[in-house]
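Below: protein 1.
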Amino acid sequence: MTNCAPGDTLVAKGDKFSLHQCPKNELEKKDMERFPMPRQYLSNPGMDHWKKAKWVMRFLQRTKDYMLTYCRSSHLEIVGYSDSDFAGCLDNRRSTLGYIFMLVGGAVSWKSVKQTLIASSTMEAEFITCYKTSNHGIWLRNFVTQL
């Protein structure tokens, strides 16, 4: 990572990955062997996955001096946002849920994960996300009120 060039964005709009993007020949496998460090963390090192791993390294190089900052405040209000996609995974059609909770303008809790259930509609995927986000939001609120 110390020698990579800085990059601008982490994920481009429309990026999709699937199990069908594995290396297809020896040349692609040899190309990935030149960079052993990221390879050990990829469960399916396809060429598109590999390019994205190098992209992540460039993004981390550019943002290594960034940090979360929090302001002192007597008003501790938790604000949460959530979203989900419907059948976004190309391999198993599972939806992805994501949420973030902010306190005094800074992120304090976030998550992005594939849903364990296969939703049959966009509304069902959003409902599952709303339920899980609400549960975590209630836990955070109780935690903050006990501080």
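Below: protein 2.
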Amino acid sequence: MAAFLLLLSLSLCSFFSPILALPSNSVSPLLNPSSKLILPIQAVAASASRVYTNTIQGKLSARDMVQIALLCGVFPAFWYLRNGRKSKAYNDTKSLNGSAHGTIPKQSIDINDSELVDPGLLKKHSEIRSYTTSRFTYPSLRIFFIRHAQADKLPTKPAPLPLLVFIHGLGGSVAQFNPLLTSLVNLASCLSIDLPGCGLSAFDPKLPWDAYTVDALAELVGKIIEDYREKDTKQGVVLIGHSLGCSIAALLASTTSPQSIALSENVMGLVAICPRAEPPSEDEVSKFKKLLLVPNLIFDLWRNWDRRGGPESASVHRFVGPSADDETKRLQERFNSQSKTAVWRRMAAGTLPVYENHIAKGGLAGRDVWKGLDIPVFLVAGAADNITKPGEIEKIAQFLGKSHPVQIDPNDKSEPIVDAAAPVDMSGNNKSTSNDINPSIEKLLLEKNPDTAVESLEDPSTPDDSERTENIPPQPLRPKRVLKTTIIPAPASHALLYMPTTVRTLAGLISDFLCTQVSPRLSLGWQLQFLSTSGKWDVKNLAKWQAVAPVSEPIAGVFRAMKTLREVDDSHCPEVFVKDWGEQVKDIVDISHESPVYDPRGLEKGGIRYHKFPTVSKIPPTSDEVVTFINLIDRLRDEQAARKEKEGAEGEELDISLYVIWWKGVGMEFKGRSMSSLREDRRALNMLTSWTSYLLGTAWG
């Protein structure tokens, strides 16, 4: 009780301390000093300070106890007034891109609204469902599932490509995986879940706290996986977890897990991003339990205080570090704001074990769970991670019996992966060719048929069915146990899965691990080669595609609109495009949400950078998507200018479909504007949003 009163009085004092120190001529962000309420509020603050002092000195009187109760009663009214002022000020001054340059009626972005800023790819392939486990019913869960676009055209014997399952961490959501999903959906079918109360999944306050324990969440995720996994064809599963999600994944995959669901026999691999090796110690559990006694109201006060400064707040720096780029800070601020206090407290409590004779029971996965992983395991850490230190993966390696696991150098050339540009994009050129095949896959083909394998890799002609069958790499139902680890250098932090500077590297490393350790059929290069040589890989409407001009005239001297490339076309394919346009076009932004019918590596080989910004046809883009897109183009233009200055290049252009708004009759409205001025113009942005909505459904394929 004394500890609680101390914490409560400390919170009261901390919250009101700015008012106590308020100069008479200053303007407080909490309350205008000219307000009639300033004197009563300062009196309340003084009382809070005195109560705190008495608590520290152990002189808390009955009068102080009454004042604490009264102060708690003052909080709701003051909170309402403060939030009302803040909300009004936000709507009056916040511009579309978060600046204070102007007003955008009905276009302001509430970063707390997970649905409003949900990426288009996730929106199109998500549904809300109810699930009941052996103990609890979760009434409204957001499930993201996208089947591999070419699943029916790829080999299915002895089993189809495994299902990739993404599990987020404490306070996270599916949206944090969006940059990875944008890339990895091209490799296999993908499934992800907003855990109860997170992201777009509803929070049910009637559910007991036990419904949020790691064991309960693992059972829930396992049940959902079994619902989406193609059990009849023996489809396997690869689990990809982040932070707390790593423990859930380990519980599902381990043969020594106490989890009752028999999913481990179907798990083919595990990728753990920023994992924690073991549950908190007894001392840590004791401290955390005291912290969790703090009511939601007080906890919310602390969280709001901690978020002062927005992208530069302590809450953001704690996750991404003060030196992170602005885009990462903006995303982290959004994810922090979307995390609900009541849900966070329940899930945090669920990570705490119960100690019996100094042995942890329940909570986060520990030694006994990790050592039961009899599958390929890939551990990834960020060198600048302050939440889960890089040393955690060394502990897990020891649990697995590997004192010196295989280290992967993140700077090595990895299997090329599509660049996810929404909401982030990474620069850097990958020089792999469109005909490159991962060395391990080539070795498998050579071992299977040494006389024809190399020739088949180089010959673009269409082989007969028997030859294609011979060149299909094996699909093991139970890959051999192996451990690989990597620590991505700074500034890689706990947010490395959505940091612009690290997510491309992470996607490439995961892609490499999947195709070399889990199944060679998960190689993007092999899939594209198989589909192109079998005649199963092409545009949906070839006649319509052929009727469209390949490339438009220059737009505003910067852009060109382009129809999608076609790998098997004689003239409009990556190889020919690089030869014809490589001197002028240096960046291509693909706005389709589907997998391309060409290999982007052919563009990268020729020095044209490929960026993926997935949008969904006929679904109007959100204001946030428009701003993110503009920021992407701004950044690409800045990078082109830097390269031009460094290399003396001239005439660089962007090939980009979305900017056909300048080409479809509204160009004069925007011509002559820089992107910076466009961002600040309300009418221009409204038109940009409207025309983008129209053109995504009617323009180029």
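The mean pLDDT is 73.
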